[in-house]
Specification:
Layout: H1 18-22, H2 37-48, E1 59-65, H3 69-77, H4 80-83, E2 91-98, H5 110-127, E3 131-135, H6 140-147, E4 153-162, H7 172-179, H8 187-190
Antiparallel strand pairs: 1-2, 2-4, 3-4
Length: 195
């Protein structure tokens, strides 16, 4: 069964931008289509313009395209569950936080700012017809070693990116997750104080 974007529109409590209601995180990726480099560049440019404290931009990205040794190494760092579907993605992007500056001063907001950049990247990618799935299930130490990162740089998430594939290639359990309704905690439970 193919899963289309139309079937995945979020049922929001009030109207929001249609890109946000349509954006979702699939696990079914087209396994043979190459990544559109112009769309990738646009997504990275959107990330570049994300807000950050003091305009510090404490983020870096590593792109591992399917079929490369780096892609295989990133796949190997993923937890077993993610290894079952992520290899089909056209690329895996490692989002890296700069946790301290060159003088060793800790950048306390680095993870927050990386999240902002990744959000911008994912929204732009979706706008352009690419799909992004963020993963926390990976061995950050193994990735840092593979990338030969300085200690002040910390891999925070791995993003699968590419064209939407046919969900029927996934296991039955994953197909069920692909088709399940998109849900979120009610807004009234998210805002814990408002004066």
């Amino acid at each position: 069964m193919s899963t289309s974007t139309i079937e995945r529109i979020a049922d929001t409590s009030v109207p929001v931008n249609e890109i946000l209601t349509a954006r979702w995180s699939p696990r079914a990726y087209e396994a043979t289509t190459a990544l559109d480099e112009d769309k990738l560049t646009a997504a990275l440019e959107a990330a570049r313009w994300a807000p950050s404290a003091y305009n510090g931009q404490p983020w870096r990205f590593v792109i591992a395209r399917r079929g490369t040794a780096l892609h295989a190494d990133i796949v190997a760092s993923l937890i077993g569950f993610n290894q079952t579907w992520a290899p089909a993605a056209a690329a895996l992007i490692v989002a890296i936080a700069e946790t301290a500056d060159e003088n060793g001063t800790v950048i306390t907001h680095a993870s927050y700012d990386v999240g902002q950049a990744v959000a911008h990247l994912s929204v732009q990618a979706h706008h352009d017809g690419l799909f992004v799935h963020q993963m926390s299930g990976f061995d950050a130490d193994a990735v840092a070693t593979r990338l030969e990162l300085e200690e002040r740089f910390a891999p925070t998430t791995v993003l699968a990116i590419g064209d939407l594939g046919d969900a029927s290639v996934l296991s039955d359990a994953l197909q069920e997750r692909e088709r399940a309704p998109r849900t979120r905690r009610p807004l009234a439970e998210t805002v814990i104080a408002s004066a």
